[in-house]
Write a structure and sequence with these properties.
Chain lengths: 493, 482
């Protein structure tokens, strides 16, 4: 069940209404049933994997709790990690592994199992593993109530595409659901703010992401037809698409959870306003980058073992992060590329600071920040080429053509309006993009998400803005017959 | 209730009301307005006065039933709800919907498409989407979705409709915002003649789909339930033997149920249908054929049921305008038949009382001398003094509404009716007079004369001509577009 579907627009209000009305002691079980139903709508068999991961991590945490010595807790921890990663490996990486090994040894007829990738498997397994590791570290005590824990793993707003929540944040809220008073639950402002986030996320996804994807898909699928201009439009377009697609989904997830009184972490924080690649990863898919930081980078050693090892650990962490995104060498390469960018940035940072000081560069001005943001956006968008392309070879060819197939004349001939989006669609996209930029500027300047910022505004303005967003989505959204219901990009992970 | 709670409730209420109003407003613009032919559902919904006869069917309905004739000669207000190639299930839906809103006394159902079975997928959208959302529509949507075995998403899209129509923002035209033909009742007519052979009459029968039989029974049942008199009829066209055989089966089914069926192909001779003069092409009758069939049906209806002559009653202005629309086709033909200015002005002079006429004397219009066409202008109200001054003249029903009197710089907005307007202007000595109708410039930029003939009641451009005197007095017309 997609968030941008009529089914969800019917399911969610019903689920929330019942949730708000039923006695407190039934709230958890109701949300759990809704979450399982939500997941089962994708494929009923997927539920078994979700349950398996839930049971394994629940049992291992309970087991660890019974063991007093930290050393003895390693066995259940390792068992839990191995079993969950085995599930993940089997369904997500087995065919990739087999075909890669076959390619390495040049053996033909490598068996392929073509197992259907369960939606959201990467997300909920990592969330469950995070809980297990937190229990091992003593950061959180093992959850005894299976219903609470199962709901933690499968809470439907964030089940299929995150944010990957931390047990220390989400579990207490879930435990607390039964003790929320009616007055706390029926908090108009919280529910309103949640609805605003859902509307905003829907706008990002259905108006911007799905619209720009038409151009991106057309150019990427036949990149040999396009020169610099078309390819750059697609490169920048994909950067916009993946932000609005994934960011939009996350916004809806946060909003949906907020309506029900649960606070999820912000997953995107105006990422294309970043002034460095390091900054970018503090703003992009924050839940995943912090997960890898806390459960891979720091355990490896982090920055405690010297600069060289720190940089090595960065490379490892981002390569694994790339692999997490998909079973393809393009994702691995993309992750590795970002690792290298971070390494280079780390190495050059002292030099750059000296240069700025020597040349008296005004680094605290808006102009400087804008230039840096544009540069970082360009770098990140070039990296996205590897993420989007089917093969590394395709990505290299695209990059090569960008620099060798100059065709600026298409800008004045109107040819760019044949690249998937005609002039009218481009105008709509630009208008929507302008709204997005304004909202992200507000995020950067005020530190507030759009719902929080609107909450502090005059009611008439707030109503008008939300109406504008909703009506733009209804009229200009890419949905209905003739539009493919574009699945959220990160669902494939 | 606390103040804060009141404010919250007010915010919810204001938002909900504003959202509903905006959504409905957007939907009204985005939705399909009519079925593409016939009188149109929008016009049907806007009507308040009782409609005694509604004709249903495919193009064979709206090309055959002359609503203007029914009104002018019989005082019978009629309406045609039809669409090109509309199948029997679509016809049934239109009957259901129209009966829900305002059931007629008599339903005339044209049966040409009955043997073809039911709608394909595109026909479902075409038929259902122009109608208002109602329990009848909901039932139709669910029924069709089940019949087509659509998945839930597609069924929901048809049910809620906005997912289907919202993408029409790409193709909106003036007609989506403004009803440009509020008087249209269905019939547009044609004077074209295609001589054809009289189709062979046969008494054979051929099978029609089971679904068609079912829908015929549903139609009969629906009419009985709403106390509507039902007449099936088959309009004249170049039918094949197989077509005739199928219609014979349709007739049998109708008569089995005690419902009238009139076959204007099978019984063409009885009704005086002459295939050499009465058809515009193989598929449809022209004005002559339509008149014969319409009179025959009108005589049948008035002979079997009491119908009130509603001429003169309030609420039937649209029927009067529709008659005017049909009648002024003859004037259009007369104007379009002219290719030279002088006879054109003579013909136009006879019509000056009926229409708005905008005449512009531009540039060196007098290059051919004062005898070229100035005397003919006198009949239109432009005497020699006015001719010598030049400029733009607007006449409405024979009265002079505006003249620029040869001024080099002027502008004037002249309202033609509650919606349409003329804008005439000139920007200086170097410029020539301009005439714009609703923002669209008319007439060529010539040394000569441009004439716009407009029917304000039907909001219709009757003719638009220019004459470049440097090339003689031949009339130039803008290229006709589809």
């Amino acid at each position: 069940m997609l968030f941008n579907s009529l089914d969800f627009l019917i399911f969610f209000p019903l689920a929330v209404l019942v949730y708000l009305l039923i006695p407190a002691r039934f709230r958890q079980i109701w949300l759990l049933l809704c979450s399982w139903f939500f997941y089962a709508c994708w494929n009923v068999r997927y539920i078994l994997l979700l349950l398996a991961s839930t049971v394994i991590t629940y049992a291992c945490a309970r087991w660890m709790e019974k063991l007093e010595e930290q050393r003895r807790k390693r066995l259940p921890l390792i068992l839990c990690i191995l079993l969950n990663l085995a599930i993940l490996f089997t369904f997500k990486y087995l065919d990739f592994f087999l075909s890669s090994v076959g390619g390495l040894f040049r053996t033909g007829n490598v068996p392929q199992f073509d197992l259907l990738l369960p939606v959201g498997i990467s997300f909920y397994i990592f969330q469950a593993l995070g809980y297990t590791i937190d229990c091992y570290r003593g950061d959180i005590s093992a959850e005894h109530n299976f219903i609470s824990y199962a709901l933690f793993v499968s809470f439907f707003p964030q089940l299929v595409a995150g944010p990957i929540e931390r047990s220390a944040s989400l579990l207490p809220q879930i435990r607390n659901l039964s003790s929320l008073s009616r007055k706390e639950l029926w908090d108009f402002e919280r529910i309103r703010n949640g609805c605003i986030l859902i509307a905003w996320g829907m706008f990002m996804k259905v108006v911007i992401a799905d619209r720009v994807s038409v151009l991106v898909d057309q150019v990427y699928s036949h990149y040999g037809l396009y020169g610099t201009v078309g390819l750059m439009m697609a490169v920048l377009g994909f950067g916009l698409q993946i932000y609005c697609d994934f960011g939009g989904y996350s916004m809806m997830a946060v909003g949906a959870a907020g309506v029900m009184g649960i606070r999820l972490m912000e997953n995107f924080r105006a990422p294309y306003f970043s002034t460095s690649v390091t900054d970018f990863w503090r703003r992009w898919h924050i839940s995943l980058s912090t997960w890898f930081r806390d459960y891979l980078y720091i355990p490896l050693g982090g920055n405690r073992k010297g600069t060289a090892k720190k940089l090595l650990f960065l490379l490892i962490t981002f390569t694994v992060s790339g692999l997490w995104h998909g079973a393809n060498w393009t994702f691995v390469f993309w992750g590795l590329l970002h690792g290298f960018l971070l390494v280079i940035e780390n190495l050059l940072r002292p030099l750059v600071r000296r240069m700025h000081a020597a040349w008296n560069v005004r680094t605290n001005t808006a102009g400087f920040r804008i230039c840096r943001a544009c540069l970082v956006t360009l770098i990140v968008d070039f990296a996205w080429i590897f993420f989007r392309a089917d093969t590394i070879s395709d990505a290299m060819t695209i990059i090569s053509r960008i620099f060798t197939k100059m065709d600026l004349w298409v800008l004045s001939g109107g040819e760019i309006f044949t690249y998937g989006l005609d002039a009218a669609e481009c105008r709509i996209l630009m208008a929507a993009l302008l709204i997005l930029i304004i909202v992200d500027i507000l995020r950067v300047r005020t530190g507030l998400m759009i719902d929080q910022w609107l909450a502090g505004q005059y009611a008439g303005f707030r109503i008008a803005f939300v109406l504008l967003i909703v009506m733009l989505t209804i009229v200009f959204g890419q949905y209905g017959p003739g539009f493919d219901s574009k699945q959220f990009i990160y669902f494939q992970f | 209730m606390t103040g804060k709670r009141i404010i919250h409730l007010a915010e919810i209420l204001v938002f909900a009301v504003a959202l509903a109003v905006l959504t409905v407003g957007c939907y009204r613009v985005l939705k399909y307005k009519n079925l593409g032919s016939g009188g149109g559902l929008d016009n049907f919904y806007q009507n308040d006065a009782p409609i005694d006869v509604i004709a249903y069917g495919s193009s064979h309905a709206h090309c055959t039933i002359d609503n203007g004739l029914l009104w002018e000669e019989y005082g019978i207000p009629s309406f045609t709800l039809s669409a090109t190639a509309l199948t029997i299930d679509g016809i049934y839906y239109l009957m259901e919907e129209s009966f829900r809103v305002a059931p007629p006394r008599i339903a005339l159902v044209e049966t040409y498409t009955f043997p073809a079975g039911v709608n394909d997928e595109s026909g479902i959208y075409q038929t259902g989407l122009p109608a208002r959302w109602s329990p009848v529509y909901a039932s139709y949507a669910l029924r069709e979705a089940a019949r087509q075995k659509w998945d839930r998403t597609k069924a929901e899209e048809l049910f809620f409709r906005m997912p289907v129509v919202h993408s029409r923002y790409r193709e909106l035209t003036q007609q989506d915002y403004v009803n440009v033909e509020p008087y249209m009742r269905g019939y547009r007519g044609s004077i074209e003649v295609t001589p054809l052979e009289t189709p062979p009459v046969t008494e054979e029968r051929s099978e029609i789909p089971e679904e068609s039989r079912l829908y015929m029974e549903k139609m009969i049942e629906l009419c009985r339930k709403h106390h509507v008199e039902l007449v099936f009829f088959n309009a004249s066209y170049e039918a094949s033997v197989q077509d005739m055989a199928a219609q014979n089966t349709v007739r049998d089914l109708a008569e089995e149920q005690g419902v009238a069926y009139i076959g204007f192909n099978h019984d063409a001779a009885v009704y005086g249908i002459d295939y050499s003069t009465d058809l515009r092409e193989e598929g449809h009758v022209n004005d002559l054929g339509a008149a014969k069939i319409t009179r025959a049906l009108a005589d049948y209806c008035t002979g079997h049921w009491k119908l009130t002559d509603r001429r003169g009653e309030a609420g039937y202005d649209a029927w009067d305008t529709h008659v005017r629309f049909l009648n002024n086709r003859a004037d259009r033909m007369a104007l379009h038949a002219q290719s030279q200015l002088v006879p054109y002005l003579q013909v136009l002079a006879d019509m000056r009382e009926k229409y708005t006429i905008v005449l512009s004397l531009k540039g060196n219009y007098g290059a051919l001398g004062e005898d070229a066409f100035a005397p003919e202008l006198g009949a239109l109200g432009i005497d020699m003094d006015a001719y010598r001054r030049g400029g733009t003249y607007i006449f409405g029903e024979g009265e002079l509404l505006f003249c620029s009197a040869g001024e080099e710089k002027y502008q004037r907005i002249e309202k033609l009716n509650h919606r349409n307007e003329l804008y005439v202007y000139r920007d200086g000595a170097e410029d020539r007079d301009h005439v714009a109708l609703d923002g669209r410039e008319t007439g060529e930029d010539v040394n000569g004369i441009t004439i716009l003939v407009y029917d304000p009641e039907c909001a219709l451009v009757m003719d638009e001509v220019s004459v470049n005197v440097y090339q003689g007095l031949e009339l130039l017309r803008p290229e006709e577009t589809e």
